[in-house]
Design brief:
The complex is a heterodimer of chains A (458) and B (467).
Chain A: H1 25-32, H2 37-52, E1 76-77, E2 100-105, E3 108-114, H3 116-120, E4 124-127, H4 128-131, H5 137-141, H6 152-160, E5 163-169, E6 179-185, E7 190-200, E8 205-214, E9 224-234, E10 239-246, E11 252-262, E12 267-274, E13 279-288, E14 294-303, E15 308-317, E16 323-332, E17 337-346, E18 354-363, E19 369-378, E20 385-393, H7 397-405, H8 410-426, H9 432-448
Parallel strand pairs in A: 1-7, 2-6, 5-7, 6-8, 7-9, 8-10, 9-11, 10-12, 11-13, 12-14, 13-15, 14-16, 15-17, 16-18, 17-19, 18-20
Antiparallel strand pairs in A: 2-3, 4-5
Helix pairs in contact in A: 1-2, 2-6, 7-8
Chain B: H1 33-42, H2 47-62, H3 86-90, H4 99-108, H5 112-118, H6 125-141, E1 144-147, H7 148-154, H8 156-162, H9 173-181, E2 186-190, E3 200-201, E4 216-221, E5 226-232, E6 243-252, E7 257-264, E8 271-280, E9 285-292, E10 297-300, E11 303-306, E12 312-321, E13 326-335, E14 341-350, E15 355-364, E16 372-381, E17 387-396, E18 402-410, H10 414-422, H11 427-438, H12 440-443, H13 448-463
Parallel strand pairs in B: 2-4, 3-5, 4-6, 5-7, 6-8, 7-9, 8-10, 8-11, 9-12, 10-13, 11-13, 12-14, 13-15, 14-16, 15-17, 16-18
Antiparallel strand pairs in B: 1-2
Helix pairs in contact in B: 1-2, 2-9, 7-8, 10-11, 11-13
Chain lengths: 458, 467
């Protein structure tokens, strides 16, 4: 147990499905005070579900729940600090090469800015606290199904969110440069509960880079919680690419919920990189409602130490001739664990579906664990493709041999193969600086982890 | 059909190998502690078995119904007769057998005499004779092949050493139920180094208990020995109760080779809930060849625990789900030792609103280094009111495992049908041929006469002319 700090408090014996984070009626009352009535009602309904639901409702996955490393007994939500009102566009403006920036530093908004031209085209980027007074707010914020109703942690977020951001792109507007949404997290004993809502009108196009980064406040051995969403609705023929870079400190427990309703002919691309956090429990729900809609999703995990990545992906095909292409890849070092759970549902209405689900693991050390559950539920056989595949294996010896035969030292060769395995997501990061940073992070993690030949992490 | 093949009701008493145990007529409907005691008392069992049954009964009561599969709550446990004297079961008349099932026998071309046996209304005369000669040959080799009840009395030590070691009573709710009320089934012991030259068929061992509702089968194959065991039959088995809960345990000792073939074709009102598991020791090979076409609902995942270094597991699972049926089947391979390998192949066909579910587990435990494993599951859906699900679980806890998994779901391709029709086949014939080709991976592993019957069965299923 070289990686366990002596100061770590041993948690009391508890079930792997116990959630130690306390969110009670008093916390709820604090939030609803002074809010519009529809929002309070929405929070209360979510709270009821949060109280009633088990941590995992899907019988297929219940035995794989493990929240034991999420020690959140002393963690409390940021109270009374909900950002209010629309901030003036930040003096700093968006980063070069980007069209907008919403940056949060723990509990406060640091920057909220849009490039002038984008703003002039009708694009809006607001804090959710400011947006709730808008006439359109109820329809978007209290939209049923905006978060999975059977998910306890999603309902926790829906009941208890204190921070949020909403991005709206009007019909026909194409934003060329990426819009960055950054959450910096780490203050000990604090829970940052957030929502992100994204709406694209018919024919709109956008690229989003989500960054989950350390705030610099983190203290070893003192946990904090981050919960976040990305609730996407895409109008007809809209195009959205979302990249997410999760490099939170290892003191943070992260719960993530991403949902998308994809309209006729619309296209969504998820590229999700999971590197940080002590424990991540993430869920993506894609609904391909419109005919010819499509979703492509690539998720990578690069785990070390005793990190746990618990990732679920649901994709439901409803329209005709829809396409789903979902790929999860995990490379694990030390004692890291990953659970990649996937479900593709092809409804009877979904004629002509093309659906693929792949889950691939690379166990780089003996004490790692990869679990893959790629499931299919099919009611309509008239499809172009309905398939899934998975594999778990070590680094391919023939690839290693090839690289070594070209004069590359074994350690470098191993590193190249692992980096290549994770490349599909890295290549999709839309901002050059962020892409470079991700590569550096991956390489640093490789150096620290035991992937280089069984050397335990310091 | 000669006169010698005429059915004589309950002729079995005349044959020496019939279980020589006094049975009670039958227990009352429903399950209580007294039922369990009654069953044990009438079988004259040793006390340890009674205690075992009672422990299992208590566990059965405590254990909730599994909720990961649906429809099990429709089973009325109070309306089942848990034990019946075999001869009582035979006293039904051929006239009581539903016409549908009689017609199916006709179409499958089952000989007159066999039909009555299969329908549970009589013993088959010829196979008794066949069995006699088989039995002599086996005893020369030292092979034990008898009813499980009989083995408990005649081979108490061997029996106790292995019974319940592979599937503990507490394993699941239904293994607990079986452990509490089990009756009948086969016991096989193959001594060291013996290769049994012909498949052992449960079919030959006609003593009524064979088609029991709560049978218990235990197969122990000693070091270096080899055996192929076949149970079931292509014809629908007419069941007296709507619940069939069996446990099958296989112990494959070092260097042995076991193949276990099942063709399950219960009538369409039966809940068929079976726990089948094998322990494979050093360098042994275990093969499950498992087909499910009958029953209302089958829940069965043949499992192999690879306990010894160099062991091999091979599972072929086939399911055909027609109208009103749910085949919840699959396979499990659990790698516990280094250099073990496993292969799972699953094929399912769903039609007329049937539901075929593949549920499988592949697990590589810490310490099981250098494992090679593959899973392949394919599903064929004949129409859009049917359903096909795939739930594979893959859990790898070693860094040098080589595991691949693939699954596809599709329909019969119009191109293939068109090609065959252009060669003069009718659409129906073409579809049949394609389905048979799809299932061939299974069929080719069967002894010839079974393969022919199985293909005929599939053909009938496809025509929708089976009951």
């Amino acid at each position: 147990m070289t990686d366990a700090p002596a100061s770590r408090i041993r948690p009391a014996r508890r079930s792997p499905s116990d959630l130690t984070f306390e969110f009670d009626a008093a916390s709820l009352d604090q939030l609803t005070d002074g809010e519009p009535a529809w929002l309070s009602a929405d929070r209360r309904a979510a709270y009821e579900r949060f109280v009633a639901l088990p941590i995992e409702t899907n019988q297929l996955y219940t035995t794989y729940v493990d929240l034991r490393t999420a020690v959140l007994d002393d963690v409390v939500p940021w109270s009374g600090s909900r950002e209010i009102g629309l901030l003036p566009h930040g003096a700093a403006g968006p980063d070069p090469g980007t069209a907008g920036l919403a940056a949060f530093q723990d509990d406060h908004v640091e920057t909220l800015a849009l490039a002038t031209a984008v703003s002039a085209a009708g694009v809006t980027l607001e804090t959710l606290g400011g947006f709730i007074v808008d006439d359109a707010a109820e329809a978007l914020v209290a939209r049923p199904g905006s978060m999975p109703e059977d998910d306890r942690l999603a309902q926790l977020t829906r009941a208890g969110w204190s921070h949020g951001v909403i991005l709206r792109i009007p019909a026909g507007v194409k934003v060329d440069q990426p819009i960055v949404i950054r959450w910096a997290v780490g203050t000990p004993d604090r829970a940052l509960i957030t929502r992100t809502i994204v709406e694209l009108g018919d024919g709109a196009e956008a690229t989003i880079l989500e960054e989950l980064v350390p705030s610099g406040q983190e203290v070893d051995g003192r946990p904090s919680l981050f919960t976040g969403t990305m609730e996407v609705t895409l109008g007809a023929d809209a195009k959205l690419a979302v990249s997410s870079l999760q490099e939170l400190p290892t003191t943070v427990v992260a719960f993530q919920h991403r949902t998308a309703v994809i309209g006729e002919g619309a296209t969504l691309h998820w590229a999700l990189a999971q590197l940080g956090s002590r424990l991540v429990r993430s869920r993506v729900d894609n609904r391909l409602e419109g005919d010819r809609s499509s979703v492509e999703q690539v998720e990578i995990v690069f785990g070390g130490a005793d990190q746990v990545f618990d990732l679920t992906s649901y994709t439901r095909h409803l329209g005709r001739d829809t396409t789903g292409n979902l790929l999860s890849k995990g490379a694990l070092m030390d004692k890291a664990r990953s659970y990649m759970k996937g479900m593709i549902v092809i409804d009877r209405s979904a004629v002509g579906t093309d659906s693929f689900l792949g889950e691939f693991g690379m166990n780089l050390a003996k004490s790692t664990r990869s679990v893959a559950i790629p499931s299919l539920e099919i009611d309509q056989p008239d499809c172009r493709r309905a398939a899934h595949a998975s594999s778990v294996g070590p680094i391919d010896e023939t690839q290693l041999f090839y690289l070594e035969s070209r004069g590359i030292p074994p350690d470098d060769a191993r590193k190249f193969i692992v980096m290549g395995f994770l490349e599909p997501v890295v290549a999709r990061v839309p901002v050059a600086d962020a892409q470079v940073r991700l590569r550096v992070l991956l390489e640093d993690k490789w150096q620290v982890g035991s992937g280089t030949g069984g050397v335990a992490a310091a | 059909m000669t006169a010698a093949r005429e059915i004589v009701t309950d002729q079995r008493e005349q044959f020496a190998f019939h279980d020589d145990i006094a049975y009670l007529a039958e227990t009352k409907r429903g399950l209580t502690r007294a039922t369990v005691e009654e069953i044990s008392a009438f079988k004259n069992e040793p006390d340890w078995m009674l205690q075992y049954r009672l422990r299992a009964y208590e566990h059965f009561l405590k254990r909730p119904l599994p909720t990961w599969t649906d429809g099990l709550d429709r089973i009325n446990f109070d309306n089942i007769v848990y034990y019946r004297k075999p001869s009582e079961r035979e006293e039904k008349s051929w006239d009581d057998v539903p016409d549908q099932i009689k017609a199916t026998f006709e179409r499958l071309g089952i000989p007159e005499a066999e039909r009555k046996f299969l329908a549970g209304v009589g013993a088959q005369y010829d196979s008794e004779v066949v069995y006699h000669s088989v039995k002599e040959e086996l005893s020369k080799l030292g092979v034990v092949f008898m009813g499980t009840d009989q083995a408990l009395i005649e081979y108490p030590d061997l029996f106790r050493k292995h019974f319940g070691t592979v599937v503990p009573a507490e394993d699941n709710k239904f293994s607990a139920l079986n452990a509490a009320v089990w009756s009948g089934g086969s016991f096989v012991y193959v001594p060291k180094g013996v290769e049994v030259p012909l498949p052992l068929q449960a079919y030959f061992r006609i003593n009524g208990e064979n088609t029991g509702q709560f049978e218990r089968t235990l197969i122990v194959v000693d070091e270096g020995a080899k055996v192929h065991y076949i149970e079931g039959c292509t014809a629908p088995i007419y069941a007296t109760e709507s619940l069939h809960v069996a446990v099958v345990e296989v112990v494959a000792l070092p260097g042995s080779k076991v193949r276990y073939t099942t063709i399950q074709n219960w009538s369409n009102d039966v809940y068929n809930l079976v726990t089948k598991r094998a322990h494979a020791y050093e360098n042994s090979t275990v093969e499950w060849i498992d087909a499910n076409t009958g029953s209302r609902k089958t829940v069965k995942f043949p499992a192999i625990y690879l306990r010894g270094e160099g062991a091999t597991a091979d599972i072929i699972s086939v399911a055909v789900a027609g109208k009103g049926q749910h085949q919840d089947t699959g396979a499990k391979a659990v790698h516990l030792a280094p250099n073990t390998r496993s292969r799972i192949v699953s094929k399912s066909v769903s039609k007329d609103g049937g539901r075929a579910t593949y549920r499988g587990q592949l697990k590589v435990s810490p310490g099981a280094t250098n494992v090679v494993a593959s899973v392949r599951c394919d599903a064929l859906m004949m129409d859009d009111i049917s359903r096909s699900d795939t739930y594979p679980y893959i859990d790898i806890q070693e860094d040098d495992t080589s595991m691949t998994h693939e699954a596809t779901v599709g329909k019969v391709s119009a191109d293939q049908v068109f090609y065959l029709m252009s060669r003069g086949l009718t659409e129906n014939e073409a579809t049949n041929l394609i389905v048979q080709g799809f299932l061939e991976v299974f069929t080719k592993e069967l002894p010839m006469e079974y393969a022919i019957e199985f293909n005929r069965l599939v053909k009938l299923e496809m025509e929708g002319s089976l009951g």
